């Protein structure tokens, strides 16, 4: 009977050990499953982030392309403004010579046509004369102190300024009226 008890104990121990081994394997499998599930979760998260970044990148590139197309002519127009200003001065000069007047009339028509094309593309002259000085659109090159006129007003436009669509192309160069009450008191 001792042998039977001993065999039963041994069998119970083997079964117990086998049960513990199975339990350990089960726990290891659970840990591996949890680890793999966390890894899948992280990869899904990274995938979603990358997809969102890609979509944002596409939108940004699309917006940049639209901006580039919108302002494609900006540099060209900026480069031809000075020659056009010079031509405008020439065609508006006064002369008594009849033949020269006829030439100037023809050149004035060409000049006006060029400006109309630029205006239809988005060029706009900055209205500066007798306007309050705005440092965003005006560049003061001279100050005058005329107390008869309002303070901070542009008295003369030295060079026209322009915007192209909604961007500043060239500020208007102006002569500004600027005086203070202190100066006004000293003169009296």
List the helices and strands and how they pair.
Layout lengths: L1 H69 L3 H18 L6 H24 L1 E3 L12 E7 L9 E6 L2 E3 L2 E4 L1 E6 L3 H7 L1
Parallel strand pairs: 2-6
Antiparallel strand pairs: 1-4, 3-6, 4-5
The number of domains? 3
What value does the Rg take, in angstroms? 42 Å
Taking pLDDT < 50 over at least 5 consecutive residues as the criterion, the unreliable ranges are: 184-188
Broad shape: rod-shaped
Task: List how many beta strands DSSP finds.
Answer: 6
Please outline the major beta sheet.
Answer: 3 strands, antiparallel
In spatial order, strands of the major sheet run 1-4-5
Mean residue pLDDT: 86
How far apart the termini lie comes to 136 Å
Structural class: alpha+beta
What does this structure look like?
This protein is an alpha+beta fold and 188 residues long. It folds into 3 domains: 1-70; 73-121; 124-188, Head domain of nucleotide exchange factor GrpE (Nucleotide Exchange Factor Grpe, Chain A, domain 2, Roll). It is 63% helix and 15% strand. It has helices at residues 2-70, 74-91, 98-121, 181-187; strands at 123-125, 138-144, 154-159, 162-164, 167-170, 172-177. Strand 4 and strand 5 (167-170) form a beta hairpin. The protein starts with a helix and ends with a helix.
């Amino acid at each position: 009977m001792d042998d039977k008890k001993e065999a039963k104990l041994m069998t119970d121990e083997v079964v117990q050990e086998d049960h513990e081994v199975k339990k350990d394997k089960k726990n290891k499998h659970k840990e591996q499953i949890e680890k793999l599930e966390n890894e899948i979760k992280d990869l899904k998260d990274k995938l979603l982030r990358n997809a969102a970044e890609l979509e944002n990148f596409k939108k940004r590139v699309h917006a940049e392309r639209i901006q580039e197309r919108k302002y494609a002519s900006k540099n060209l127009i900026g480069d031809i403004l000075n020659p056009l200003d010079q031509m405008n001065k020439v065609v508006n000069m006064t002369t008594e010579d009849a033949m020269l007047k006829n030439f100037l009339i023809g050149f004035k028509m060409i000049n006006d046509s060029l400006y109309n094309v630029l205006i239809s593309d988005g060029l706009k002259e900055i209205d500066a004369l007798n306007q309050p000085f705005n440092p965003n659109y005006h560049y003061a090159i001279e100050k005058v102190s005329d107390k008869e006129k309002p303070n901070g007003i542009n008295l003369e436009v030295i060079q026209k300024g322009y915007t192209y669509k909604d961007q500043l192309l060239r500020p208007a160069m102006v002569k500004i009226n600027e005086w203070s009450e202190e100066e006004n008191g000293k003169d009296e």
